[in-house]
């Protein structure tokens, strides 16, 4: 099919992940303004609801939800619940702990997923390098408030669930578009988080600047990176994606240098080098988990490949 492929399929999936990582760290620049005047649960509500509204206007994702099969609708609903709980626990955790500590704990799950899918000495070596780099970058400190640690580990568990469920959603239904399925999940997340954060978000709704900041957080933290994630997940094995998550702290250091002028210490440079080395030497281990074509929204051949894709997602 070569030249007939859409542009989105000609872009290497790894570049989508890099884009996701960059926007993942641009979001907090908008959240700074919000944290000064809105509680953490209110910020979480603004982030999820604004993202849900963007998806609603852009994609009308409820059509995908009702067109999908029962299993896909269950996955969409589960991901929506995970989005709501994950964002809430993340903001509660960073309100009580250094961001580096929360980030370090958050990477435990993805590293375990990558270990499960390694299946070769080369990939295990890649994981050791990436894990060492993440450890050095995030400067783990566990002698802190145990309640805050519980929230951080809850966030880590939910982040791992996000990778597992979102990866399956990206390949779950040959009839609907994965971005539409993602949007449906975000709408469910907006409903789920409303009892937790609406009251605390109310002060921001009368201030156009704060509303704009909330929309900025939603776009940069929950729309653009999650869309890029879906574009990458449709073509990357789950274990490969989980390993690439180790690039997030390295990306944070790079953005700190370029945007904020924060020159890293030598140990941070070494840590970034370890993470990059781990990603570079990693290879997909089995033919079952190699890149798979993404069926068109109305491609009848998708039914033929659907079960194989789902099996690859589970195995990897």
Quick synopsis:
This protein is mostly helical and 316 residues long. 77% of the residues lie in helices and 0% in strands.
Q: Write down the overall geometry.
A: globular
Strand content: under 5%
Number of helices: 15
How many angstroms does the end-to-end distance come to? 27 Å
Domain unit count: 1
Query: What helical percentage do the residues reach?
Result: over 70%
What structural class is derived from the secondary structure elements? mainly alpha
Largest sheet, in brief, is: none
Q: What is the number of E strands? A: 0
Low-confidence sequence ranges: 287-316
What does the radius of gyration come to? 19 Å
Order of secondary-structure elements = HHHHHHHHHHHHHHH
Mean pLDDT: 79
Describe this protein's structure.
With 316 residues, the protein is an all-alpha fold. It has one domain. The chain has helices at 7-10, 13-35, 40-59, 62-67, 70-96, 99-106, 108-116, 121-138, 146-169, 178-205, 208-233, 238-244, 247-258, 266-281, 302-315. The radius of gyration is 19 Å and the shape is globular. Residues 287-316 have low confidence and may be disordered.
């Amino acid at each position: 099919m070569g030249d007939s492929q859409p542009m989105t399929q000609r872009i290497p999936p790894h570049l989508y992940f890099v884009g996701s990582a960059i926007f993942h760290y641009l979001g907090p620049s908008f959240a700074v303004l919000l944290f000064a005047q809105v509680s953490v649960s209110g910020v979480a509500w603004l982030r999820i609801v604004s993202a849900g509204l963007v998806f609603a206007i852009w994609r009308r994702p409820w059509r995908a939800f009702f067109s999908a099969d029962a299993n896909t609708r269950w996955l969409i609903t589960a991901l929506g619940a995970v989005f709501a709980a994950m964002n809430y626990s993340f903001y509660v955790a960073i309100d009580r702990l250094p961001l580096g500590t929360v980030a370090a704990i958050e990477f435990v799950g993805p590293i375990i997923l990558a270990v499960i899918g390694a299946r070769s000495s080369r990939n295990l070596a890649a994981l050791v390098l990436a894990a060492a780099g993440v450890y050095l970058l995030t400067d783990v400190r566990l002698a802190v408030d145990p309640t805050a640690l519980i929230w951080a580990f809850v966030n880590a568990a939910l982040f791992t669930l996000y990778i597992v469920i979102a990866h399956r959603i990206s390949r779950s239904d040959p009839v609907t578009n994965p971005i539409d399925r993602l949007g449906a999940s975000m709408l469910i997340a907006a409903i789920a988080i409303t009892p937790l954060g609406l009251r605390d978000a109310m002060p921001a709704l009368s201030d156009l600047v704060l509303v704009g900041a909330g929309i900025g957080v939603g776009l940069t933290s929950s729309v653009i990176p999650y869309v890029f994630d879906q574009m990458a997940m449709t073509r990357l094995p789950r274990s490969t994606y989980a390993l690439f998550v180790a690039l997030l702290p390295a990306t944070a250091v790079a953005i700190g240098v370029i945007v904020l002028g924060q020159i890293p210490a030598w140990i941070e440079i070494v840590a970034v080098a370890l993470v990059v080395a781990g990603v570079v030497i990693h290879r997909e281990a089995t033919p079952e988990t190699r890149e798979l074509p993404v069926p068109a929204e109305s491609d009848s051949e998708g039914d033929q490949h659907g079960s194989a894709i789902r099996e690859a997602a589970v195995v990897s």
